[in-house]
Please model this.
Amino acid sequence: MQFCLPGREMTGNLFDQSIRILLCLLMFAIIGGIATGVAITFLEVYRFMISAFARKEVHHGMESILISSLGVLAMVEVFRTAMAYFIEGRVKVTYIIDTVLVAVLTETLAFWYRDVEAARIILMIALVFSLMVVRILAIRFSPNKKALCDGL
Model:
């Protein structure tokens, strides 16, 4: 076990190494999920093209392609958050909020293709609005304002 000397970081302890190993495994799983999502999206594009030419069914094909694509983008945001933790040793609140926003907006776009009651739509709008406010506040009151203001 290493002891922390004044002015130096403790980098070789068991906890830090365990977290790095587990995070590497998580990142491989995320990459696998992204690759699978891209493959499924291409499969849906193929199915869409066949059904569009054969039966002129465009609506359902576009829905599945849109949802799959946005799911892949949500996974990219999760990967970006994991990479930020791997590099910086912490996760920025804005990355977490961005990830949640992408996931919530994916669900919101899925509502276009379903019959959803008005109360759920109002709740979704309130959630998106509150996440936007929290993201702006996180950037506004961040200790590193100058670097984060570029993300607005």
In short: Residues 14-55 form the longest helix (42 residues). The chain has five helices and no strands.
